[in-house]
Amino acid sequence: MRARPASPGDVGTPGWVRPRWEGTWRALGHSADPVEIAPLLAGLLARYAEPHRAYHTLVHLEECFGHWAAVRGLADRPGEVELALWYHDAVYDTHRDDNEARSAALARAAITGARLATAVGDRVEALILATRHDGTPLAGDAALLADVDLAILAAPAERFDEYERQVHAEYAWVPQAIFRSKRRAILEAFLARAHIYASAPFRASSEASARANLARSLARLTD
After folding, report:
1. How many other C-beta atoms can be found within 10 angstroms of the C-beta atom of residue 181?
2. Rounded Cα–Cα distance for residues 167 and 91 (Å)
3. Same domain, 65 and 131
4. Dihedral of CA 165/149/25/110: which sign?
5. How far is residue 19 CA from its own chain's centroid?
6. pLDDT tens sequence across 85-112
7. Are 90 and 47 in contact (CB under 8 A)?
8. Whether residue 52 sits in one domain with residue 121
9. pLDDT tens digits, residue range 159-208?
């Protein structure tokens, strides 16, 4: 058996990362050969560690996988959802509005390089684009992924408030008045939806808490 190649991302990498990464590829029917997938992971780890990120980090990814564990059994293609989770914030630049599309392109390149079927790339790309949260009706795996990504909205108040501070930090370059106005518009749009969450499990477990958190945050921004 070949030894797993060392990677710069190994130093200081949380213990959950590599086993889950390899498990994702196995769920896709890939051998998870470290020679092939370790460089992809190293690239992702470097992205999630970028200094301008405060919320969209490995901590967010770990939280997402924690919520995913509760609904994984409902997915049609869980391996594809997991790969979409890994890549959904691979590109994160608050100066741009095409992060999801660029993240999806990275995922597709990884899938192509791993010689998986083109259809897998198509579906993973569509899943990542669902995390734009633009109000497009979602169902099936896309609904589960989008809800996992939005699970933070229903977090306990202390964690939700920390999340709000982290998002603010990522937009520190935006003038305060503009940030508050834009953030109010985003929160109001979520609250105006008939449902914040697209899937029944998240509506049952998280809808009320998310609405309470958003209303509280909106009140602060309106003061």
Report:
1. 12
2. 15
3. yes
4. negative
5. 18
6. 999 999 999 999 999 999 999 999 999 9
7. yes
8. yes
9. 999 999 999 999 999 999 999 999 999 999 999 999 999 999 999 999 99
